[in-house]
Amino acid sequence: MERILGYASWKSVIQMKLYIIHYKGDENNPYHFEGVTDNFDKWLEEHNSQREEDIQEDADDFDVEEIELSFGVRGGYSSETLQNLSVIAKKYKVKYENKS
Question: Would you say residue 2 lies in a domain?
């Protein structure tokens, strides 16, 4: 993990992976941004569900950059607020650590 400023003083941390998606382009379409998702395989499935059967795209048609994000709460928040962060983390299936 890269150094995160102030990490030691955080009371709670939410960590998640996201994928930045760019279409590589072809002779008819330029390289372009498609979106950001937390689940590339699911995104690709949904993307192809909107396309005709004979023009489905596969993972090799895209440049996918994985990034990791960390969100921290320093303190001064109620235990109810910290519990809500835990609920949000579970809903979105991201790593959550409460250091209190």
Answer: no
Taking only the tens place, the pLDDT of each residue in 62-79 is: 999 999 887 776 666 667
Of residues 87, 82, 83, the one with CA closest to residue 10: 82
Asked whether residue 1 is domain-assigned, the answer is: no
Structural domain contains residue 75? yes
**Where does residue 85 fall: left (phi above 0), alpha (psi -120 to 50 degrees), or beta otherwise?**
alpha
Quote the number of domains for the chain: 1
**At 6, which amino acid appears?**
G
Residue range(s) defining the domain that contains residue 91: 7-98
Does the predicted model carry a pTM greater than 0.70? Answer: no
- CA 44-89-50 angle, to 5 degrees, is 20
Task: Write the CB contacts of 51 (distance below 8 Å, at least 6 apart in sequence).
Answer: 57
